[in-house]
Design brief:
- The structure is a single chain.
- This protein is α/β, with parallel strands linked by helices.
- It has 2 domains: 7-114 and 222-358, D-Maltodextrin-Binding Protein, domain 2 (3-Layer(aba) Sandwich), CATH 3.40.190; 117-218, D-Maltodextrin-Binding Protein, domain 2 (3-Layer(aba) Sandwich), CATH 3.40.190.
- It has helices at residues 7-11, 46-49, 51-54, 57-60, 73-81, 92-100, 145-157, 175-182, 193-201, 214-218, 229-234, 236-255, 257-267, 278-292, 294-301, 310-322, 341-344, 349-358, and strands at residues 30-36, 63-69, 87-91, 105-110, 117-122, 137-140, 167-170, 188-192, 207-209, 223-228.
- A 5-stranded mixed sheet has the order 2-1-3-10-4, with helices on both faces. It has a 5-stranded mixed sheet with strand order 7-6-8-5-9.
- Helix 12 crosses helix 15 (294-301).
- The chain starts with 6 loop residues before the first helix and ends with a helix.
- The relative contact order is 0.20.
């Protein structure tokens, strides 16, 4: 029988403690430390990391959210465990690995509706299917982390392993990755949805993306917001405010990606392309945001952003066990606390849409 997550059992983890609606203003502003598992906070992340501030949603919740990038999910996730960050936005595999060894961190909101890690080839490549990857050369952003893992899992679903490829090498991101593909150094590129949007929109790369593979829907619990178990118990109001701001920021970015990008450039000036007029940079990056926000569009419009079913979590857990990434088959509740979902989606949609459209 399928397990149903209800509001009653979702709140049970707090002993029934009530959560204030995240858009209610507080008398004092509180600083919150939010970490991101990638060192560069580029404009494609605006829907999840800056639109909440651009739209004033975190401020309305009395929060001054400070976002910092880190070089990898592992280092970022160690910090909330040591009480040096309040919340982390990154991939689930590294968090599950830490939970596997007893580190008390847990998912509080599932970020994406589907897996954003998948391979691609040049648009004119003779490779038309994943089965044709055998004997070919693949380039990955790095040889560790979520991208490496999910390429491994994807190949496994097609009865292959990375060792069935001629070679697998790191190619980084941006121009180096494009050069590796266009120069013939690699045949297949393994990156993520937002980066492909950048490569196509800003760098003009033409790609054939394998983004419709059934495994991408099967393994969809891949990117999330995490915090310590102690924070869930002791500071649910703050967490509801952070997540509620993200939910509203997503809707804001869906309605007006240009405004989301302008706000992102203001918050992270180094993310703006150099040597390019501001209006051109905004338009290019807005196209990237419009593509990348599709990862959360369905759940955002349905007012269920942040939710993950037990089945979604268990499929990813089992894939990680099968690939030797984690050793324990823990209950789904050990990975995900769904008590915030109702509160974070409880906002005035019309007001958010009006604010986004008024931003021009």
């Amino acid at each position: 029988m399928a397990r149903v997550i209800t509001r009653r059992n979702a709140l049970a983890g707090l002993g029934g403690a009530a959560l204030a609606a995240p858009h209610i203003a507080r008398a004092e502003t509180r600083t919150v430390r939010l970490g991101y598992g990638v060192s560069v906070i580029d404009p494609s992340t605006a829907p999840w990391l800056s639109a909440a501030k651009t739209g004033g949603f975190w401020q309305a919740a009395g929060l001054d959210v400070q976002v910092t990038g880190f070089n990898g999910a592992g280092p970022a996730l160690q910090l909330p465990a040591n009480n040096q960050l309040d919340v982390v936005f990154t991939g689930t595999p590294d968090a599950m690995k830490l939970r596997d060894i007893g580190v008390p961190i847990r998912t509080i909101a599932n970020a994406y509706d589907r897996n954003h890690n998948y391979p691609a080839v040049a648009a004119d490549s003779p490779i038309k299917s994943i089965e044709e990857f055998r004997g070919k050369r693949m380039g990955l952003q790095t040889m560790t982390g979520s991208i490496y893992l999910w390429e491994k899992v994807l190949l496994q679903t097609h009865k292959m392993a990375l060792t069935d490829l001629a070679s697998v090498i790191p190619v980084g991101t941006g121009a180096p990755a494009v050069y590796a593909l266009q120069s013939g150094q690699i045949d297949i590129l393994g990156e993520w949805h937002g980066h492909y949007a950048f490569l196509e929109t800003v760098l003009g790369l033409k790609l054939r993306k394998f983004d419709q593979d059934p495994a991408l829907s099967e393994y969809s619990f891949v990117q999330a917001f995490f915090t310590r178990d102690e924070t869930i118990q002791k500071d649910p109001q703050m967490l509801a405010g952070v997540l509620g701001g993200v939910a509203q920021g997503l809707r804001y970015a869906i309605e007006n990606p240009q405004a989301a990008v302008r706000g992102h450039f203001e918050q992270f000036p180094n993310s703006r392309p150099t040597g390019m007029a501001v209006d051109i940079a905004v338009e290019q990056s807005a196209k990237v945001v419009g593509i990348n926000v599709q990862l959360s569009r369905q759940s955002t419009l349905a007012r269920r952003w942040g939710m993950a079913s037990p089945q979604q979590i268990e499929r990813v857990r089992d894939a990680l066990v099968e690939n030797g990434i984690i050793q324990k088959t823990l209950p789904w509740q050990d990975y995900f606390m769904p008590q915030f979902i109702d509160a974070l989606n409880d906002y005035d949609v019309d007001a958010v849409v009006r604010k986004a459209k008024a931003a021009g």
